[in-house]
Amino acid sequence: MYMDYRPCTPGVGLDEMFHYAGSRESADYLTLRDRVMPRISPFERLVYDFKNHRPRPDALGRRSFVVQIGSTILFVSLPVSILLNLLCLALAVPVWLIAGAIVLIIGGTLAQYFHGTLHRVDNPWIVRAMRRVGLLMTPEAHALHHATLRQDFATNTGWSNPLVNAIFRVATSRGWLTEAGLEPR
To answer: Domain residues of the chain, as ranges?
Structure first.
């Protein structure tokens, strides 16, 4: 939700890339990308990728496993695992808390990969099995998010969407999130 609505840094060319009308494999686009991307931080690239996948959702499904989880590892898994290790060195952390944190780290690491599976037809058997038993959401359920960009931001199971939708309503009613952030300007 935050990444979808967070404004991109203006004036660096992200708007040109986002609204590029030609082929994204053309020399012209690749030159534009090579000029723009070094001007932004890794975090800003992650924000841009969130926005860029909305009008082109299938592009996310074509990315490799390593590309999909790379930013998640950099910004979530690695810092949280280092923090957990430091906490375990400093305190007697209960085993149940360590186990829960490890499950969250693994789930967080795979979150973008699971999101990518919603945007492709050919998925591993384990993903299809997890969908059948309700552990992962279906592409049809995720399509509601892309249709409105105002609901259902949770892309792994979708179980938290009622709570996240309520938080979104509060955040937009108070002006914390505005539609001006949906596209690079």
So the answer is: 2-63+117-181
Q: Are 153 and 161 in contact (CB under 8 A)?
A: yes
Q: How many CB atoms lie within 10 A of CB 130?
A: 18
Which pTM value belongs to this model? 0.78
Q: Which residues contact 157 (CB under 8 A, 6 or more apart)?
A: 134, 135, 136, 137
Per-residue pLDDT tens over the stretch 71-105: 888 888 999 999 999 999 999 999 999 999 999 89
Q: What is the 3-state secondary structure (H, E, C) of 3-67?
A: HHHCCCCCCCCHHHHHCCCCCCCCHHHHHHHHHHHHHCCHHHHHHHHHHHHCCCHHHHHHCCHHH
